[in-house]
Design brief:
Blueprint lengths: L7 E11 L4 E6 L13 E4 L8 E3 L1 E7 L2 E6 L5 H5 L5 E5 L13 H4 L3 E4 L4 E10 L4 E6 L3 E5 L6 E5 L4 E4 L6
Parallel strand pairs: 8-13
Antiparallel strand pairs: 1-2, 1-7, 2-6, 3-4, 3-7, 5-6, 8-9, 9-10, 10-11, 12-13
């Protein structure tokens, strides 16, 4: 159970119902995707902004042909499963293992200031996105910027304790 004030980290979403007995597809953001089933407890938040997260318990889970599937306690039919579609799956930050040195969870980067090597602030990490070639920071400031998260080349340092990410990036770009 998350403690009061503990941060919850988005790990995926509830997808479409699977069958008629309350199972749902899980759209996981973990790698490998089935790892999401190992993190507990889960909290669900309806897809709209400002919705409150509520704790849920996984009654059963398995890996289907198209990825993870789960049935949650109290959900016994297709209609109940459909009501959960698009809900965000969150887990307490404390449930996650510490990442190896030089790696960070996306949730730990969100909100950090992004500054150039010349100490010019570009904005804050609004979110991260996966593009295939490399991850990209969506930086919101005077304008939105998409900055590749390529360590050593673009990202010079990540300093969570200082609340910032230092990048070698032209502010005009």
């Amino acid at each position: 159970m998350a403690t009061v004030g503990e941060s919850l980290v988005p790990m995926g979403r509830i997808g479409a119902p699977h069958g008629v007995r309350g199972w749902v597809r899980i759209q996981s953001e973990t790698r490998p995707e089935e790892n999401i089933l190992a993190y507990t407890p889960w909290y669900l938040r309806a897809g709209h902004q400002g919705a409150e997260a509520r704790p849920v318990t996984i009654a059963e889970s398995r890996i289907g042909g198209k990825g993870p599937l789960a049935r949650l306690d109290g959900v016994a039919d297709r209609e109940g499963a459909a009501a959960l579609t698009h809900s965000v799956i969150l887990v307490p930050r404390s449930a996650l293992p510490e990442p190896p040195d030089g790696e960070w969870y996306w949730a730990d980067l969100e909100g950090l200031a992004v500054v150039t090597t010349a100490d010019e602030e570009l904005g804050r990490v609004q979110t991260m996105m996966e593009t295939g070639a490399n991850d990209v920071m969506v930086v919101a400031g005077e304008r939105e910027r998409l900055i590749p998260f390529v360590q050593g080349e673009v990202v010079r340092s990540v300093e969570p304790e200082a609340g910032r990410v230092v990048v070698d990036w032209d502010p005009e770009f």
